[in-house]
Amino acid sequence: MEAAVFVFAAAAVIVGALGVVLRSHPVHAALSLVMTLFGVAVLFIAQDAQFLAAVQVIVYAGAIVVLFLFVIMLLGVDRAESLRIESIRAQRPIAALVGVGTLGLTLLAFLVGTKRNVTGKVAANLTAEPNVNQLSRAIFGRHVFAFEVTSVLLVIAVVGTVLLAKRPPRRDEQNRLEQKGDG
């Protein structure tokens, strides 16, 4: 049963993540993000982390994605538009290099993490205190900087959405608007 739940949730996460990246319609991409977040919440429940699953659904799927959808719909970028911009000639090779480097660092962290074993003493301490206390101590103690950086990244994402939606109209759109005004 656990394997079936894992396979279903992992498939939902992967399909949703691909939908976020591959969909050209911004509303469909945001809804694919919701599917990804719900899949991650199911994986949290499978790991007996109900609090994290609730936070995942309430905060991320419920609030942040709804905020993204609100900004998308409010600014009218829900119709397909060309987002073609002039790019630096070396932009794609640099992006590929950064992507390979990030993948390499992720694999390195995974390999280093699998070599460490949890001792019996540490495992006993993990069960002695509720998950919520451990989580709050970790987030607002050791990882407070990462927590704040994440909040800044979310604000940057919203500002980026607004800037993408408020770009000036293209020349053909400008000409069409001027012709309508003359008629």
Structure, explained:
This protein has 183 residues and is mostly helical. 81% of the residues lie in helices and 0% in strands. It has eight helices and no strands. The chain has helices at residues 2-22, 26-46, 50-75, 91-115, 120-128, 131-142, 144-165, 171-182. The radius of gyration is 22 Å and the shape is globular.
Distance between the termini: 67 Å
One letter per element, helices H and strands E, the order comes to HHHHHHHH
Largest sheet: none
Strand content: under 5%
What is the count of DSSP helices, taking H or I runs of 4+ residues?
8
Task: Indicate the mean pLDDT.
Answer: 78
Structural class, by secondary structure, is mainly alpha
The radius of gyration computed from the alpha-carbon positions, rounded to a whole number of angstroms, is: 22 Å
The count of β-strands is 0
Q: Level of helix content? A: over 70%
- Unreliable segments of 5+ consecutive residues: none
Shape: globular
List the helices and strands and how they pair.
Layout: H1 2-22, H2 26-46, H3 50-75, H4 91-115, H5 120-128, H6 131-142, H7 144-165, H8 171-182
Helix pairs in contact: 1-2, 2-3, 3-7, 6-7
